[in-house]
Amino acid sequence: LPFGIDDALINLEQCSHILHLLDQPGIGQLTGLIAKVMQKIIADSAQQNIQSSDVEAMGEATNVAKRYLDFLCVRETRAPQFLTATINKLEMVLNLPLTTEGRFVSPFLATIHPQVALHEPAQLPETQYLSRLYKISLLNLLKQQETDLDFQALSLCGNYLASIASQTPSKQYWGYVHLVLNQLPSTILTEPRLRILINIESQIQQLLAQPQQFTVSNDQLADVIMLCLSQDNEVSHQLREQLNVVDDILSDDQLEVLSRQL
Question: pTM score, two decimals?
Answer without folding.
Answer: 0.89
